[in-house]
Amino acid sequence: MSATPVLVTEPEFRRAEQAFASASGLKCTPVPGAEPELSAIIQRSGVRHVVIGGVHYRDALYASLPRGGVLARFGVGFDGLDLGKATEAGLLCTNTPDVLTQSVAELAILLVGMAARHLTSFDRRVHQGIWKAPEGTEIFGTTLAIIGCGRIGRATARLASTAFQMRVIGYRRRSHDSRPVDHTSSFDAETDDFATAVRTADFVSLHMPASPENVHFIDRERLEMLPKHAWLVNTARGSVVDEIALYDALAGGRLGGAALDVFEREPYEPVDPSRDLRTLENVVMTPHVGSHTANANRRMAERALQNITLATAGDFSSMDLINPEVLTRSL
Predict the structure, then answer these.
(1) pTM surpassing 0.85?
(2) Residue 182: what pLDDT?
(3) Which of 116, 142, 188, 314: CA 20 to 30 A from 85?
């Protein structure tokens, strides 16, 4: 039996080339990720299944794939997909939950450590021949507020609690999270009141999805609820933070600092050129690398391809479907 052809957008293919090249029963081919080019290749080749990254796909992609085709997201967040259009077109959309949890949680804790000990500033100073640096602080025993108590939030809480004995407060919206409180978790307390969650926080780590209701969740009003010395850590999505309000809080001395792996515009470009976060000393910035480890990349590739294999076998119930309503339509 010939291998099932699968297109993989180039950035994702490069991140896990060995896993894609050695996939059993599948022939993976790297292709451009931009929607016009990708859609044209799909139409010419007749391929049914595509592994995609975080690019925003708005129109042509959904018309190019046949019903029953798979759009397999290489990652967890799926804000780049229009699930309504995908479902209308009869496309099975999947993501890769769990497999990047550890990598993102580790980065969140590493960013907390970089903030506490001014590591990026120290590195610059030593490279410049300056053997003098500001005083840091220990993480041990400090308070961490986790905003969003999903898989990654819980993993971050576990690392903070066990490795550094931090006091961890979890915030989650009760109306959007029906999970019962896990009293064996690493949270010292959980609340649905944001002000309560952050009131005594030394660090506030964001782990919220990029859903419409979360756009600019961290706005001017909520930033004012954070203690003046606190650091904001974001390894979730750039859209959940109002970067103009964040810049003003940082530049005005109303917030200790920010450690950011994600941004409203990526690669980073200031929303307002006069408020460029790169100009501030109390900002640590990394280029959206939370899940970019060899371990997580391999697992994401394997999980994305597993979803495609399940689809070809008709085992839809075992897939990581993010639009399960598509199953009620004729595929």
Answers:
(1) yes
(2) 58
(3) 314
